[in-house]
Predict the structure.
Amino acid sequence: MKERILAEAERLFWKYGVRLVTMEDIARQLGISKKTIYQHFNDKEQIIYQVIADKAVKNQSEVACMTTTASNPVEEILQVLNMMQKHAEQVSPNLLIDIKRHYPQAFALFRQYKEHQIMRSILENIQKGISQGLYRSDINPAILARLRVEQIELAFNSELFPTDQYTMHQIQHELIHHFVRGMLTEKGFATYNAYCPKPSEYNPTINPE
Amino acid sequence: MKERILAEAERLFWKYGVRLVTMEDIARQLGISKKTIYQHFNDKEQIIYQVIADKAVKNQSEVACMTTTASNPVEEILQVLNMMQKHAEQVSPNLLIDIKRHYPQAFALFRQYKEHQIMRSILENIQKGISQGLYRSDINPAILARLRVEQIELAFNSELFPTDQYTMHQIQHELIHHFVRGMLTEKGFATYNAYCPKPSEYNPTINPE
């Protein structure tokens, strides 16, 4: 039952944010009573906390899997984009804002996940890219990893990116491709171009005419 | 006298942030009494407000000047970097944090400057770059301009970039070069490479071997 509650809560939180979803809503969707939910969780914060904890573990193993199967760091980062976009399509921009404003423990957990796992994955990606000659050797990995990590929250900021003007998909796509391209060497561009769909307008090569 | 007070306050604020500098400090440096300062300003917030207002006008005309003299958008953005670095060398990372936390009117003015003038300059730069074939035609100018504008505050965030690990100069350099490179077309790279000092390690060309 605990797993069913978490799965349904996740679906609803992702779709509407956390604040608008009540314990009642979750119970109704599952055809159970609120009392059953309270047998497993004290309050909504405990549910969102557990959802984030589970999500962090799951995302991390997806990323670890990509790191193993991708043949190079450029492919790896573009696979992570695909993964994010699959999630992003379903996600309400309210989600992170609600958590930040109203669920401090859950937000602290997200921050911790961001500062540790995500940061480390990005740093490793950058260092691998440099050592394979795909990213410039003159970049500062720590500064750019920080930039990338901050972009994750930036994309959720609907004051900066009003939801009636941009989709999350569009923002993530724009930011990640720009992020990768800014690091590429000539060799890196050859690899990058091989992974990107390229109508000539869409993805001009940097190779010679 | 008002101009002398503003000039000295600016120098002290830039060096130590706003909070640590007292009206007494400003008076002492100028060899005047505090009373003389209070003849011109009600409080420190009024001084920092005026300093920012003057700075915004001055910066904006420097940028306008670069836009006129630079022969292309890539040169223009790299000149703005030089200008920022000249200022950044002298600036305390406390400055923006102090203003954000303790001087709401001054911060609102900075925000307004950022949202209007800076945003517009960046957008114009991106649009010109695209129309001249130096930046990719498939980028979304509004999303990337927003990214760049947010990087300005990011660089000042000493929780993210601890001052014992990074200089402002280093952060700005890294972020702006990465920002420009992420937008460049092949033609853009040729132009960019012509403006950058290039020990081969430091600035690898993207042109063919």
